[in-house]
Specification:
The protein has 549 residues and is an alpha/beta fold. It contains 17 helices and 20 strands. The strands form 5 sheets. Strands 1, 2, 3, 4, 5, 6, 17 and 18 form an 8-stranded mixed beta sheet that branches. It is globular, with a radius of gyration of 24 Å. It binds NADP nicotinamide-adenine-dinucleotide phosphate.
Length: 549
């Protein structure tokens, strides 16, 4: 019989959440192994290395906050840091905490099965390797299962093509080339504005346009650097209190009680300010009251018309299917001005859809767009997609995919009834899904680590949520969307961007403070909604690694 390594915990994914979780598990004295598909750490910031990829959160609000040493030793160079620096940062953290020795790279987890009698998870890696663990912790991200469109002839293309989430590590020289980009979400916008600077001809294939807003990025000056380091406690405190975990927070003044000229001046200030201020620092009413939303949408439409010279093109770039802020707002840097360039063409796929991809390019109606490169910026099977790609089986062989076929059901977005000792970081219906993600990741990891520490102390071997608690939480998540204008809009928040996926709300929309309070209340009430047990009998372990000291 081949030897199966056993650990106290297996973590899937070495992104921001998996890395911190490993650190905390070690702090509890537990043996842990992280399995990572890529050959380096970083998750999102490892895979998304397309030109233009950068934070849309202020850099200093995005890094880990748990270690003063890490904060002290790292200097961000820009207010919104680019991907190469982000990947360097995560490697710096991994090296500083000596994490890599417990991460097995190039190891894609394909299955995880709960073994009822042993109360262990057996995890299978592509290629056949199997390991067992008392706890299984998923750190697989909400936007990691990238998806291609289904267009005839895609394989026939003779040039090169990639999804943005699988951009090659080797340098790609697009200078002077004919490049097509499909997709104009937050990713497409970032890539388009970069490629437009160098491509010979850039053709943008757009379905529905998005409301994009200026990032207003710049280098961090020396004086700002000093201010940032001194201000970290205040920055993280602001993020802790804000709805989305950002440095921006909603203005709660009733929209129509503020005089119109004042509202207009406020919009203008936010538009000229950095990052998500115009979205998440705006009047809360813009996301709940259709009349308030119409006013901010008209303001944003005016900006597009002012920046795009050709009125016909400007109209093509103004969303008609949703109001401002009711989908994730892409952040841009001279994105709209790109369409004033002679080397850029915008193609409206709603007017004429793509007929097929040909060996030479993209055929639309009777026109064939000849291309050297096709870039698919077509998004992700969000939130639940990464779970679907692993065969996860709980008690009695129940498949998670079957349980979630009509939408996810979870407790706190962290556990699922019938799947004992499985914790999800940034899982569906978790507060971290609609958040400045590292801020909520830290909360998730700390909650899970405290729960495991509690189990250690009480000598508990198993924790599982109940179906009652799960149903109540799922219901609560749907309640958080009531009155929000984005609940009726087609987007990855509801999974409607993925063909064949049932549209249900995938994110928690109650805000960071409320999510945290819910998690804290559960602990204060003795892990209410969970059933724990210490009475599982274990067969003799044949393995040298002890379980659960
Ligand atoms: P996305 O928002 O889902 O956008 C995908 C784009 O592809 C949309 O424009 C979509 O059009 C288009 N598309 C999909 N299928 C298509 C088809 N068959 N034919 C033509 N077009 C098609 O995906 P994303 O831009 O990758 O962004 C996903 C999320 O990642 C963002 O919302 C954000 O949360 C995150 N992100 C974050 C950052 C950052 O923080 N720096 C950067 C990038 C992305 P329709 O919308 O009309 O379907």
């Amino acid at each position: 019989m081949s030897k199966i390594d056993q650990f106290d915990a297996v973590v899937i994914g070495a992104g921001i959440s998996g890395m911190y979780q490993l650190h905390r598990l070690r702090g509890l004295g537990l043996s842990a192994r992280v399995f990572e598909t890529g050959d380096g750490v970083g998750g999102t910031w490892y895979w998304n290395r397309y030109p233009g990829a950068r934070f849309d959160s202020e850099s200093y609000s995005y890094g880990y906050s748990f270690s003063k040493e890490i904060l002290d030793e790292w200097n961000w160079t820009e207010h919104f840091s680019p991907q190469p620096e982000n990947e360097r940062y995560l490697n710096f953290v991994a090296d500083k905490l000596d994490l890599k020795k417990d991460i097995q790279f190039n190891s894609k987890v394909v299955a995880a099965r709960y073994l009822d009698e042993q109360n262990l998870w057996e995890v299978e890696i592509e290629g056949g390797q199997r390991v067992r663990a008392r706890f299984l912790i998923t750190a697989i991200g909400i936007l990691s299962a990238h998806q291609f469109p289904r267009i005839e002839g895609m394989d026939s293309f003779k040039g090169q093509s990639w999804h943005t989430a699988r951009w090659p590590k080797e340098p790609v020289d697009l200078r002077g080339k004919r490049v097509g980009v499909i997709g104009t979400g937050a990713t497409g916008v970032q890539v388009i504005q970069e490629v437009a600077k160098i491509a010979g001809q850039l053709t943008v294939f757009q379905l529905d346009p998005n409301w994009c807003s200026p990032l207003n990025n710049s280098a961090i000056t020396e004086a700002e650097q000093t201010e940032i380091h001194a201000g970290y406690p205040a920055i993280f405190d602001a993020c802790r209190k804000s709805f989305g975990g950002f440095v921006h927070d909603f203005d709660q003044r009733p929209f129509f009680e503020v005089p119109q000229a004042e509202r207009e001046a406020f919009f203008e200030r936010q538009y000229q300010g950095r990052g998500f201020g115009i979205w998440l620092g705006n009047f809360m009413d813009t996301l709940t009251d259709p009349r308030a939303n119409a006013e901010i949408s008209a303001f944003m439409a005016g900006k597009i018309r002012a920046r795009v010279k050709d009125p016909k093109v400007a109209e093509m770039l103004i969303p008609k299917d949703h109001g401002f802020g009711t989908k994730r707002v892409p952040m841009e840097t001279r994105y709209y001005e790109v369409y004033n360039q002679d080397n850029v063409t915008l193609v409206d796929l709603n007017a004429t859809p793509i007929e097929r991809i040909t060996p030479q390019g993209i055929k639309i109606g009777d026109k064939e767009h000849a291309l050297d490169y096709i870039i698919y910026a077509t998004g992700f099977d969000a939130v639940t997609g990464a779970f679907k790609r692993i065969d996860i089986q709980g008690k009695g062989g129940t498949k998670l995919a079957d349980k979630w076929k009509d939408g996810p059901e979870t407790y706190l977005g962290m556990q699922v009834a019938g799947f004992p000792n499985l914790f999800m970081l940034v899982g569906p219906h978790n507060g971290a899904t609609f958040c400045n993600i590292p801020r909520c990741i830290e909360q998730n990891v700390e909650w899970v680590s405290d729960c495991i520490a509690h189990m250690q102390k009480q000598d508990l071997q198993r924790i599982e949520t109940t179906e009652t608690a799960e149903a109540a939480w799922t219901n609560h998540v749907y309640e958080t969307t009531q009155g929000l204008l984005f609940s009726g809009v087609r987007s990855w928040f509801v999974g409607s961007n993925t063909p064949g996926k049932k549209a249900t709300f995938l994110v928690y929309a109650g805000g960071r403070p409320s999510y945290r309070q819910n998690c804290e209340a559960v602990v204060a009430k003795g892990y209410e909604g969970f059933v724990t047990s210490s009475s599982i009998s274990f067969p003799e372990s044949t393995d040298p690694i002890h379980l659960y000291r």
